[in-house]
Amino acid sequence: MISTIRNALQVMAIQRPHVAVVCLLLCCLSGGHSIPDPRQREALIRLETSMQTGGHEVLTDAEQRLDAVLYKLKQVEVMRADFPPAMHFFKARHLIRSSPVFSLLQKMPKGAALHVHDFSMVDVEWLLTNATYRPYCYICFTDDQSIRFIFSSRSPKPVPHCSPWYLLESLRAKMNTTELDNSIMGNLTLFTQQDPETVYPSQDTVWFKFEHTFRAVWGLVTYAPVFRDYYYQGLTELYMDNVMYLELRCLLPEIYELDGSTHDRAWTLKTYKDVTRHFKAAHPDFFGARIIFTVQRQVNVSFMTKTVEEAMKLQKNFPDIMAGFDLVGREDKGRPLWYYRDALSLPMERGVTLAFFFHAGETNLEGTEVDQNVLDALLFNTSRIGHGFALLRHPVAKGLSKKEDVAVEVCPISNQVLKLVDDLRNHPAAVLMSENHPMVISSDDPGVFGASGLSYDFYEAFVGFGGLRSNIGSLKALAKNSIRYSSLTAQQQEEALASWQRRWDKFVSENVF
Ligand SMILES: *[C@@H]1O[C@H](CO)[C@@H](O)[C@H](O)[C@H]1NC(C)=O
Ligand SMILES: *[C@@H]1O[C@H](CO)[C@@H](O)[C@H](O)[C@H]1NC(C)=O
Ligand SMILES: *[C@@H]1O[C@H](CO)[C@@H](O)[C@H](O)[C@H]1NC(C)=O
Ligand SMILES: *[C@@H]1O[C@H](CO)[C@@H](O)[C@H](O)[C@H]1NC(C)=O
Ligand SMILES: *[C@@H]1O[C@H](CO)[C@@H](O)[C@H](O)[C@H]1NC(C)=O
Ligand SMILES: [Zn+2]
Questions:
Q1: 362 is catalytic
Q2: Most informative mutation of 127, 144, 147, 208 for ligand 3 (most atoms within 8 A of CB)
Q3: Cα separation of 214 and 326, whole Å?
Q4: Domain range holding 19?
Q5: Which tens digit of pLDDT belongs to each residue from 17-60?
Q6: Does 451 have pLDDT greater than 90?
Q7: Which of 84, 246, 314, 470 lies in the 20 to 30 Å Cα band around 307?
Q8: 431/454 same-domain check
Q9: Are residues 311 and 172 in the same domain?
Q10: Which reaction does it catalyse (predicted)?
């Protein structure tokens, strides 16, 4: 009898989990025993596990064996006194690198990276050792202890609040190169060997430095030859980390040449397309990349209107490479989405397709105008929500995101480094993951955070907020989600999923013994 009820309830649980839980609880309460029925307890536990991300994945024998291995490895990790997800990533990185769970995650085919930014996708060491060692590279030192770069065939014009330009090559010949290069590195990244809590005591201090790193790399990465190689290097790093597809958020700035001439936005977009094609030619199992055009969220309404119009034009002219549109920059200090409501309604008004991929809810300013962004993003039919860190505090928005199947792009390391959460076990995505809310894992600005690829963020998600309960099914679901929630067409998704599945099967068979 009990098992009949249980079966019925389990069928129901799949359709209406909350009702089923209530019924099960009532059954337990009305049983009249002082000790709750262990079988029903077991059923409730299984019900809850089945509700998590990947809870309904059917696992092969080999996958189950790999899961058992992973579980043991994770158990060992959780017991550690220096548990990496509980620590700041800068302090945890070397521990993560030596973790056997991490090495498995590196080998795992992770699908797609759907939330990464153009000028923070590459390890800054590449910028130092490759970009700054090219000829004609000039550097100047700003009044506020930062640096700027420019490549120029002539002596470049001075810029305000900066020292005269020095040819880097000559400077290196005169100065201690190690010290100079270390100070350049220090300006290109947030990563530090010092105590990160001391160096970055508040959101303001960390964002101040974060924005400075972008200004410092600007002159390097917007130089045409570096621009192409940088993007190629970014694809290489993702590929090496077993990521097969990318959706990159790009400012599409003017790109300059050695003689000072510049290229427009269409050229920049076309260059992304060309480099992607070259990369694919050299790596046939890489699926490709698409671009989400972004604009700073401080601009005025007329500028936003102009930019949205340009985005519609680019979308029309480059439908295969261009995925859509987004706003970037510190949400707390920027204008809320609602401020731009007229501009953002233009595509709909004109019957033009322009998909939105809004950053929203990357904040802990509860109850402010900015905090409404998650709901507004959904009202503007966003295709995904970037971060959605505040989503749990908005039950209506959360419900809509689930109902409309709008995935949240969770970037754990970014949220920790930018000081929204300290201990990644407490990341709000723990809740989202426990109830299979549509979500993907991404890395935001791996270059600036001292990470690379997706594996570090997968580690924090799987070992940190996934807890012991997340399993191989969760990983499988997260990887598949990254393809399913991409901007690829249904047919492309099918192709990508088939290719991912082949790699996945290979990964599983190579890692069970
Ligand atoms: C930088 O990388 C590019 C592309 O891999 C390579 O062709 C070039 O020689 C490198 N330059 C330096 C200075 O390392
Ligand atoms: C350059 O500076 C580093 C670090 O301060 C020091 O260890 C090294 O000896 C110096 N090299 C030279 C050639 O002075
Ligand atoms: C950035 O560069 C300036 C100028 O060389 C230097 O004084 C400063 O120490 C560097 N910052 C870091 C964090 O290395
Ligand atoms: C809007 O911003 C642009 C670019 O910063 C500026 O050129 C323009 O004058 C501004 N317009 C208004 C109405 O403030
Ligand atoms: C969002 O989609 C709904 C339903 O398709 C539509 O009615 C609405 O006008 C759209 N809103 C915007 C701002 O695109
Ligand atoms: Zn972002």
A1: yes
A2: 147
A3: 18
A4: 2-51
A5: 444 444 455 554 555 568 999 999 999 999 999 999 999 999 99
A6: yes
A7: 246
A8: yes
A9: no
A10: adenosine + H2O + H(+) = inosine + NH4(+)
The total number of residues written for the chain in this structure: 513
Please name which of 20, 23, 13 lies closest in space to residue 51, comparing C-alpha atoms: 13
Q: Are residues 381 and 329 in the same domain?
A: yes
> With a 6 A CB cut-off, is 302 part of the ligand 4 pocket?
yes
Does ligand 1 lie within 6 Å of residue 130's CB atom? yes
Per-residue pLDDT at 402 = 98
Q: Which atom of ligand 5 is nearest to the CA of 381?
A: 1
Which ligand sits closest to the CA of 225?
1
Total number of domains in the chain: 3
Tens digit of pLDDT for each residue in 226-260? 999 999 999 999 999 999 999 999 999 999 999 99
If asked whether residues 257 and 172 sit together in one domain, one would say no
Is residue 387 annotated as a catalytic residue, yes or no?
Answer: yes
The response to whether residue 224 sits with its C-beta less than 6 Å from ligand 3 reads no
Q: Is residue 63 part of a domain?
A: no
Residue 338, domain member (yes or no): yes
- Of 187, 212, 237, the last residue of a domain is 212
CATH of the domain at 391: 3.20.20.140
Confirm or reject: Cβ of 298 under 6 Å from ligand 5.
no
In a domain, 80, yes or no: no
Put residue 16 in one of left, alpha, beta given phi > 0 → left and psi -120 to 50 → alpha: beta
Ligand 5: residue of 342, 348, 354 to mutate (most ligand atoms within 8 A of CB) is 348
**How far does the centroid of ligand 2 lie from the alpha carbon of residue 178, in Å?**
6
Are both 269 and 410 inside the same structural domain? yes
Which has the closest alpha carbon to 211: 454, 445, 511?
Answer: 445
207 and 236 within one domain: no
Give a yes or no: residue 66 inside a domain: no
User: 129 with 115, same domain?
Assistant: no
Is 256 in the same domain as 116? yes
